Amino acid sequence: MVVRAAMDDYTNIPPDGDEGFGSAIDTATAVIDGRGSVLVWSAGARRLLGYAPGDVTGRPAATLLASDLPEPARRCLAERKAWNGRVSLRHSDGGRVDVELLAHPSRGGDGSLRWILVTLTEGTALAGMHPMQPEAPFMDWAFTQSPFALAIHDTDLLCLRVNDRMCQMFGLTEDELRGRHLTAVLPGPQYDALERFMRQVLEEGEPAHRETYRRVPGETRERAWSVSVSLLKDQAGRTQAVWIGVLDITEQYAARQRLTLLNEVGTHIGTTLDVTRTAQELAGMVVPRLADLAVVDLLDAVLSGDEPPPGPLTGTIALRRVAHQSIFEGVPEAVIKPGDIDVHPESFPSARCLATGQSVLTRMDDPTFISSTGHNPARAATIRKFGIHSILSVPIRARGVTLGVAVFLRGQRPEPFEPDDVLLAEELTARAALSLDNARRYTHERTTALALQRSLLPQTLPRQSAVEVASRYLPASAHVGVGGDWFDVIPLSGARVALVVGDVVGHGIHASATMGRLRTAVRTLADVDLPPDELLTRLDDLVSRLSAGPDANDGDDAESDVGAICLYAVYDPVSRRCSLARAGHPMPALVTPDGAVTFLDLPAGPPLGLGGLPYESTEIELPAGSILALYTDGLIESRHQDIDLGLERLRHALAHRKPSLETTCDNVLKAVLPERPADDVALLVARTHALDSDRVATWDLPADPAIVADARRQVAARLAGWGLDDAAFVTGLVVSELVTNAIRHAGSPIQLRLIRDRTLICEVSDGSSTAPHLRRARAFDEGGRGLLLVSQLTQRWGTRQTPHGKTIWAEQALPGDR
Prior knowledge:
Elements: E1 29-33, E2 38-41, H1 43-49, H2 53-56, H3 71-78, E3 83-90, E4 96-107, E5 113-119, E6 124-126, H4 138-145, E7 149-154, E8 159-162, H5 164-170, H6 174-177, H7 182-185, H8 189-204, E9 208-214, E10 223-233, E11 239-248, H9 250-268, H10 275-286, E12 293-298, H11 300-304, E13 317-326, E14 341-344, H12 349-356, E15 360-363, H13 369-373, H14 377-385, E16 390-398, E17 401-410, H15 419-456, E18 467-474, E19 483-491, E20 497-507, H16 509-527, H17 532-548, H18 557-560, E21 564-572, E22 577-583, E23 589-591, E24 597-599, E25 604-605, E26 618-621, E27 627-631, H19 643-655, H20 661-672, E28 681-688, E29 696-701, H21 707-721, H22 728-745, E30 750-756, E31 759-766, H23 786-793, E32 796-802, E33 805-813
Parallel strand pairs: 22-25
Antiparallel strand pairs: 1-2, 1-5, 3-4, 4-5, 4-6, 7-8, 7-11, 9-10, 10-11, 12-13, 12-17, 13-14, 15-16, 16-17, 18-28, 19-20, 20-21, 21-22, 22-26, 23-24, 23-27, 27-28, 29-30, 30-31, 31-33, 32-33
Helix pairs in contact: 9-10, 9-15, 10-15, 15-16, 16-17, 19-20, 21-22, 22-23
């Protein structure tokens, strides 16, 4: 039985009748379904085996076998491959007929599997059989009229016979091929390989099948071919020749390629949440497998993360080139560079597809091809130079909004885009559109989170004299999302300053919002002048309450848990002492004026939010000109380096003294950070200053009311020495009130200190830890107006606890600054 694989309608084989031997379909043929049952039984099959169609149709074809199928046949049937060979069939009278069969798989109209079977040689009757007439030309008809390109070569690979289809493929006549080696007529590596293939089948004795994609001399373009080679044997089983069958499977090959390309889209497009990279992935996927050139143009709103218009878009449209890919290096066909804006007139295919929401295919046979695609001379010249003949414009739409357009072009590939190519391009673009829209939405969310986070960070650092500062904040790479790192510089009373660096666990808007709450809390607690260890204790309690509060039960556990680390330092330029405490934070770096770099070994307090463990402060004296480097763990720890390596790189970067702290920050980030940081980074670098002794005046006072007048006189004299006589009156009133309160309500030791900084600071310290409170005295009260008077005469005032009592302070503007 022979397979007629390209038969358009095998169901037209007459099931019965005697149309005569002049009909090609009078050959012994049959059609078997995928379950092995007979579907069609020809008149030739009836004459060969004696069964009427009604006797065999619907029955298993295996009942017609007089002996088991050869093993090669079973293997080919299982693998759904073509096979030919000799089998024994059972005649209706009980006899046996040996025939040479060819079997080929095919698909029915409903897509189900079918096997088409045809005899290649005459049957030999055994035991009462009715053989076919020897003179019947069935084999000639099957050979010459087969949709296969067929050839028979002897064991020396000399051509014995070829059919017309094979001659058409090679562009030669049968006389030019018969009696010669194929390579003698058609030199080239592909024909050398074909002869080696035939020789391999002769040596191994088993049929073989291969698929190849190439252009043959008789075709104008490359096609996919299915090549089957098997042996032809006589009745004694001796190999007499080798048979070659070639079938054009270009359409099936193209369908498989399209399916493969679609399957790869899921893993190769949308690997990141970056709009530009996703667009480039789409262009890279289709070149060269679908197009010779691909470009992706998007609306500016997509790149910024904004919501694009829902569409359709009409009129002249401005699109930004985001990505392109070509079979030629450097994309020489592109007139527009990535990042540039191209204006698309209303007649341009891109504008037309955006207006209609449908793909637009333009070909060279369109009289308006050049005018509609080349609205500027440079583009028209490029189309002619590279022979572009087919342009497919596909709108990029996702979730009801228009993002842009993808354009696919062919020039070097001779065949134009076909309907199947349009469907494939639309499916590829639709899948990429979802990834592009996801990237756009992420860009919008990230931009919002970054704006929120930057608004919560200090926009400008406050003016103060204690330290010179420089800072840097770098968000993590786009695929990670913004984090909760922050820093702050907080002026304190007595010309002191607080330096803060912290990091909230997690990323996203939730982390940024939590960072803002903690930064506000730190500034509030700093205004109370708490020492570092006590401030971290209060902050730890706040974080614990945030995690356990009612808001924590509204979301997921990962979102509601709050954790943070923090480093808080207070530097006093008068004493040059710095007090520091940390809550799970990396150790700060200290660079002394001689260039030595050390990491301060502070007590390792637990991260904020754990609760239960105390925090400890460490106080050190810093030479003027020392540099403190405070940073979050994203600077020294990443997937690319461990902490020790990060610390060593930081040490090396800080050891080289720079002319400015800004340069120091830049060099630290360049030396320590990877190219794409996996976490946020906050860096705060401060160079300490010391107030000159002639800008500070201190007096120890006895607890005697008579000393108040003397204190005012000494303060007035010092202000005169500083050239601040205009401040003497107000300062005298402040000194009188504060010293009198200390004498009346507190106790020794009492100390008066005057500091000339950016403001004039007056401080009175005593041995009582009880802090005074501002109140409004009633009309007949004899006291209670002192602090109210101080608050009205000065810019601000306050109180802070000391190890031996408290200090009440007041600040007033210098006379020249009022």
